[in-house]
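#struct-help
A.M.: can someone run this one for me? Single chain, 323 residues.
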Amino acid sequence: MGSKWSHAQAGQAAVPKALPGGDGTARTKDIRFVLWAVLALNLLVAGAKLLYGVMTGSLGMQADGFHSLFDGVSNVVGLVGLWLAAFPPDADHPYGHKKYETLAAASIGAMLVMTCLYLLWSSYQHWLGVVRPQVTAASFGIMVGTMLINAGVMQWERRRGQQLRSEILTADARHTGSDILTSFSVLVGLAAVQMGYPLMDPIVAVAIAGVIAYTGVQVLWETSQSLTDVARLDPEAVRQVVLMNKAVIDCHEIRTRGLPDHIFVDLSMHVRATMSLTEAHDVAHQVEDSLKQHFEGVAEVIVHIEPDGQCHASGKARTHVTV
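D.P.: on it. Structure tokens below:
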């Protein structure tokens, strides 16, 4: 069977791993804790920049402080998205509300693009000479200190996002990274003015805006994979796992979709024609258990059972066993 998946992807997908925290409720609590902690730190960083900016009249520091405050807004968006995603399936949402988490992550991606536009506008103002950074020892100290805090926050949030397979945490870590870059642009502006090269400030800001725009597009692209039901598992790897069950003769029409931590699998498998319905049902449950053991994040498996030698690809009735 041909496959567009690389061997590296297939190998990674086939490694069984348990999500930290065990069940989905524990995972949600872990993500919520990270977001609350990051929100508190973002408010601390924003408060330091805004307070110093107002006290000294530094427009650059005030603008960067408002950008840090904007990071806090992204945390709130993440918390709201997580709250909505935690609702159980209902009549209107039979597959659950998990994609609200993806929508929240996409919103953070859009905020990154807005940050890029803000930097471009700010660099234009610096280019015209409307904004002239004020250079003091305290300004350097506050900017370096807040950058170190944000660097720690970004590393921790990104690591937890990977461990918990959370699109929100991964996207928000990138947003925090954009705050480090904007703070760096402020530092460059301060240093450039002190050395007598004020035009370096807007030039560096434009370059950093390009990096942030690229990151925002990456976030939007990754969330679009979930929203457009891109295949989550290598079909050949799934087939090999199913065929490990000696009662299964063949497996085909494998489809997967969903979120990285909440994957739906749909497949057809052939069993001997003389097998009873009870036996076929037991085999379907065995296949489900095998797939959940081999692939992280599998939430539901739908098995279409066909008697061997009777392929109904034309759309005729088949036996559907949901496990």
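A.M.: thanks! The chain has nine helices and four strands.
D.P.: also worth noting: The mean pLDDT is 80.
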